[in-house]
Specification:
It comes from Shewanella intestini. By secondary structure, the chain is an alpha+beta fold. The protein is built from 8 helices and 10 strands. Bound molecules: 2-oxoadipic acid (OOG) and nickel (II) ion (NI). Nickel (II) ion is lined by residues 40, 42, 94, 164, 166, 234, 258.
Length: 265
């Protein structure tokens, strides 16, 4: 496990921009070359004991992160937690896990079979959170997973890595509101996730979010290659609580729609 939060996020970012070439362009577009503050990143996994949310979370807890919130997505059969660092300038972390036992016996057997191929030491290695896929996967198995759960298929194909980074709109020098960020992105030709509307949440729930639809990349399966959705970029604007501090949580109804940024269009 890493012991330096900045090193871990630098590694996660390097992997993420390989998966998401558009993120580098968006970075330039919104930040005008200046540094961009990340509101949060997100990771995905299965709730199988050897790779579950808690296993991923250990990497963040080891560098000072604290468990700060629980979320449940009944229809997608997911649960999630978010973690915060004592230094509020460090990104928050949103980790979700698929409740595998709620799916068909076939999906359960497939997922257990994938995870069983992993080297047991992989999950504590420094690079685990940006190590990608640890198993053989054929195209038919990918497609069978996709038919039941887009999330299951995404994790099966792409494995362990940041599924998105999130620009903190509050910290952008040239933009104030999420609508003008969205407009700038659309003018530059980026496709936004419009599930539930382009802006998820509101000032009333203290968080507004939008995201691009994931980039697409050719992934090698054991018997074929196929272009599939990879990772996306998110934009978040936070509003203050009554005590004047910015809200630091997530909004389940909004998150539910953000997950769909990796759906095929
Ligand atoms: C996470 C979706 C939720 C947010 O900011 O609400 C989320 C995911 O797609 O893995 O990131
Ligand atoms: Ni997010």
């Amino acid at each position: 496990m890493h012991c330096d939060v900045n090193v871990l996020f630098a590694e996660l970012w390097q992997d993420y921009i390989k998966m998401t070439p558009s993120a580098a362009n968006i970075h330039q577009l919104l930040g005008d070359g200046a540094d961009i503050i990340n509101d949060h990143i997100a990771l995905r996994t299965f709730n199988i004991a050897s790779v579950n949310l808690a296993v991923l979370a250990k990497h963040f807890i080891a560098i000072g992160y604290v468990d700060c919130g629980d979320y449940h997505f009944e229809k997608k059969k997911l649960v999630a937690k978010h973690f915060e660092h004592p230094d509020p300038s460090q990104p928050k972390v949103f980790i979700s896990e698929l409740m595998v036992e709620e799916f068909s016996p076939q999906l359960q057997a497939t997922v257990k079979g994938l995870v069983a191929q992993m080297d047991v030491s992989a999950v504590t290695a420094d690079n685990f959170l940006y190590s990608g896929r640890h198993w053989d996967l054929d195209l038919a198995t990918y497609q069978a997973l996709l038919a039941e759960s887009e999330y299951a298929a995404w994790v099966a194909a792409l494995g362990y890595r940041a599924n998105h980074f999130t620009v903190s709109i509050n910290d952008l020098p040239d933009f104030d509101d999420i609508e003008s960020v969205n407009l700038k992105l659309k003018e530059a030709g980026f496709i936004l996730n419009s599930a539930g509307g382009e802006v998820k949440g509101s000032k009333a729930v203290l968080l507004e979010q939008s995201s691009t639809m994931a980039d697409r990349m050719v992934v090698k399966f054991s018997d074929a290659e196929l272009e599939i959705p990879s990772c996306f970029y998110e934009f978040a604007k936070r509003y203050p609580l009554e005590n004047g501090k910015l809200y630091t949580g997530f909004v389940a109804a909004s998150a539910d729609k953000i997950f769909e940024s990796t759906n095929a269009m």
